[in-house]
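Possible race condition, two jobs.
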Amino acid sequence: MTDYKAIRKALHEHPQTAGDEQFAHDTIVRHLQGLHPDKVYTHVGGWGVIAVWGKDPTAPTIAFRADTDALPIGHRCGHDGHTTILLRLAELVDTAKLNTEHLALNTKSNILLLFQPAEETGTGSQSVLESGILQQYNIARFYGLHNLPGYPLGTVVLCPRTFAAASTGVVYHLDGRETHASTPELGINPGLAIAEIIKRFNDFNGHKGEFRQSTLICVHLGSPAFGTSAGHAEVMFTLRAFTNDEMERLIHDANSAVDEIAARHKLTVSRTLVEPFRATENNGDCVEAIEKAAEDVPLRVRYQMEPFRWSEDFAEYLLHFKGAMFGIGSGERQPELHHPDYDFPDALIEPAAQLFFRLAAEPI
């Protein structure tokens, strides 16, 4: 069998950030050249790769995704491990498809593996969708995973509905009028409006039982010129919610509050959304399938009723296809994701690939 620990190590030693994942792309393509997929698409949405086993695009297709990009501080989120898991799955699927007597896989269905770039910036899934390749296949179920430090190694963590929250950064630009500091009454200083906005946004945390969160990120007001009363300001927040509907309501309420405050203070306002993520809303049937597959491996299963507050761009696929995302524990003493000391545990590669393989074998 291929040394997947060595592959993971090579990926780990060549981290490349979103939009620059050439090493991962080329490593994946080389690995697939030793197998027998019916179709391989390269440079998908940038440096993405798609491999398909099955010749009929209209046949039911089970799809799996791994993310390939790193952080500026290296592979400190485990995408090197996720990629390696999918490469091992490729070998398992290939072996089963070549063995005509192998009953594990449904010969009438397709298996599609997506190695996706640019997850960390939230742009990769949209770029893949815009390529149009996924839409050529009859995708019946779509699965993704993410390793979870702080959970026992190999424990499968399921969320029955939303797995990861919707979030977006938002920047509000407020323009008034500068004036000499000795005559502030002749200008329009946004300072008091900024104070009101911050207080109002604090009231958005929690609402009628639905989770919503507003986090103040940064404020820019005026400049260090003591002879000038400020005339321009920017205030930045991160907004979060557990459903896409609640996120839309939160953005509407936030914009309405800023518009009302700005108008009262005679300010003009514009806004910019930064790295918007949708909520990763799971399909119940797919969650049940993951639970059964995990038990068959066997792996311990744990349900978590509250979604994770961070966001995942796998959410974009779930707006188009029936599917689910789940977590798998990478160790209770493992440093948290994005920590400089984090490193993906190789012990997860085989059980996670076996779980995916059982999902690939499920009847559609």
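Job #2 (started ~2 s after job #1):
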Amino acid sequence: MLRRALLLFAVPISALLAPVYALAQAWPAQSVKMIVGFPPGGTTDVIARLVSQELTERLGKSFVIENRPGASGTIATGALARSPADGYTLLMVSSTHGTAPSLYASLPYEEKDLAPVGLIASTPYALVVHPTLPATNMATLIAYLKHNPGKVEYASSSPGTAQHLAGEMLKRSAGVNIIHVPYKGTGALMPDVLAGRVPMLFENVAVITPHIKKGSLLPIAVTSAKRTPLLPEVPTLRESSVGLDEFEVLGWFVVYAPAKTPPEVVRLLNVEMNRLIAKPAIVQRLQELGAEPLGGAPEQVGAFVKGEQDKWGRVIRDAGITPQ
């Protein structure tokens, strides 16, 4: 469904380049700043640096990363919203941008302050269990959970994260009663999950794959619509034949500019981003991160983000999660 909604342009890219590359003589005339709302080294930061390096090579001016971590990326988004709309400040957001409107009572920006530029990639999560849990696939796991309501816990790095909300979606979709145990970050939760004290976890495939390969955790399913190359033997939740045909939880990465950025600049950047994520070397690097390149026109990117915000808003309300 996501892939159908975000297919790359049906017309040749060359047909789109003529009007926007007339702008290239004047823009960029200086370096471009890309803000990242998370610390260096995380997936959002790594993907932002990958994109920035390619744009630097293509457009002849430096695209420089500025990390402004805090409040699930909303501090950085607020900084972008206050930036001049001249194309020289961009922002890489993660899928926390899809949950922030429902998780925070107030935000330092409004969606109308932002202009979607490009959808770079998505990353699935894997549902894993400790080997001591008597389940080897989704059917046996759900059967076990239904026979033990309120007795099985699942971990997340904090309330409102994709890890938490995936568990809430599973509760609603499969009709099971599992208990959420929040931690302060993935590093804090892993000792308890690996020891089996909290035996279930939804986690980004790139983060959890090493533990799966070691046999420390058992993969049950991935949350994307199709299998991931990192774990090709692990089925999707949709393949489980237990009534989860619409289950999909993805991490994703989108580039924004301030609203009122010249449309020619937005279109130029969008064309270049769609071009770079089609390069074999970039595709390979993204796959090493567990990510799948996506793409699409700015209008499609905006519609995608709106759909994610609506979906997670319903999950958050149904779960009774109170805005902070």
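The domain at 124-240 is CATH 3.40.190.10 (D-Maltodextrin-Binding Protein; domain 2).
Logs attached separately.
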